[in-house]
Amino acid sequence: MNKQLVLNTLAAGLLSLMTVGGALAQSAKPAQELNLYSARHYQTDELLYAGFTKQTGIKINRIEASDNALIERLKSEGAKSPADVILLVDAARLWRAEKDGMFQPIQSAFIDERIPENLRAKADGGGNTWVGYSTRARVIVYNKARVKPENVTTYEKLADPINKGQVCTRSGSHPYMLSLVGAMIDRRGEAATEAWAKGMVANQARAPRGGDTDQIKAVAAGECGVALTNSYYLVRLMRSTKPEDQALMAKVGFLWPNQATSGTHINIAGGGIAKNAPHPEAAKKFLEYLATDAAQAYFADGNNEWPAVVSVKVENPGLKQLGAFKVEDVSVAAMGRNQIAAQKILDRARFK
Ligand code: FE
């Protein structure tokens, strides 16, 4: 900044101080607040956010929308965006937001100590660009009458000719697919992953469509023999008291993929500090709060997920029913990085 600019800025600052001076004089300190842009919305949110306000006195203003709607809003707001913290779902989306310049790094020894290294995207100059706060697994569901579980024990086996005409997935351009494929690229390389993608397409029971719950329903209906779903959709149906959901789930088996090999693919919900956050200190406090025991439990349990902090346990009957499993050892940053290569591979394989 040059001298004249500094003077102008100071003058403008003084002027605005004079205008609001009366208001400021009345309260001991300016009200602290935090603008949260979140793609998550669950029943436990009230407890989660009230806990933060109680601890810090910082009021949370929430903007809640789908991941895509939030990203569009942030783009249109640009440098004037009031966003302090951005919470998104899936490493592929978080990475995309990073590439679009939406985050600034967060430096926090507390976060580094609490959140496992593979669930954070480290920033070049130290700290993290974004941080995972809960984990979900990409599991295999199959029709018990149509498919032998031993034929679908791995992601790789879904592409084996033995499963011809059985496999259903959601779109190949959805972040959940891109992250899964991105992780496979990291683990097995591009050539093996492309061969797998082609095998998947050859085995499709129908053109990819719908969300994860639609895949589970299609498996139950026998339209598909086997499908992939995020664990929380499965848990939601497992915990449902509706007779139609219970009848549906009676037809569906589930298994943890790749238990004898690389482990089951996991992903995250997470977030970071917005690039132009008007309240960066409050943003840092909030992201640290999300890594505390109480907040971790609310955050994960609200969507039937696992806390990112391994020592935190949630009392969730659905997760208990799923049991423990071996987790794939791939970092969320690598999944994010690989998503462009993943999309190219899926396009070449004509995975729609
Ligand atoms: Fe989802």
What is the topology?
Elements: H1 3-26, E1 33-38, H2 45-56, E2 59-64, H3 67-77, E3 85-89, H4 91-99, E4 103-104, H5 109-114, E5 120-122, E6 128-143, E7 167-168, H6 175-188, H7 190-203, H8 212-220, E8 226-230, H9 231-239, H10 243-250, E9 252-255, E10 266-274, H11 280-289, H12 293-301, E11 306-307, H13 317-322, H14 332-337, H15 339-348
Parallel strand pairs: 1-2, 1-3, 7-8
Antiparallel strand pairs: 3-10, 4-10, 5-6, 6-8, 6-9, 6-10, 6-11
Helix pairs in contact: 2-12, 6-7, 6-15, 7-15
Bound molecules: fe (iii) ion.
Could you give a quick summary of the protein structure above?
With 352 residues, this protein is of the alpha+beta class.
Observed structural traits:
352 residues; alpha+beta; D-Maltodextrin-Binding Protein, domain 2; 2 domains; eleven-stranded mixed sheet; 17% strand; globular; disordered N terminus; binds fe (iii) ion
What does this structure look like?
With 352 residues, this protein is α+β, with helices and mostly antiparallel strands. The chain has 2 domains: 157 residues, Periplasmic binding protein-like II (D-Maltodextrin-Binding Protein, domain 2, 3-Layer(aba) Sandwich); 145 residues, D-Maltodextrin-Binding Protein, domain 2 (3-Layer(aba) Sandwich), CATH 3.40.190.10. The chain is built from 15 helices and 11 strands. Strands 1, 2, 3, 4, 5, 6, 7, 8, 9, 10 and 11 form an 11-stranded mixed beta sheet that branches. Helix 2 packs antiparallel against helix 12, helix 6 packs across helix 15 and helix 7 packs across helix 15. The longest helix has 24 residues. The radius of gyration is 23 Å and the shape is globular. The relative contact order is 0.19. The N terminus is likely disordered. It binds fe (iii) ion.
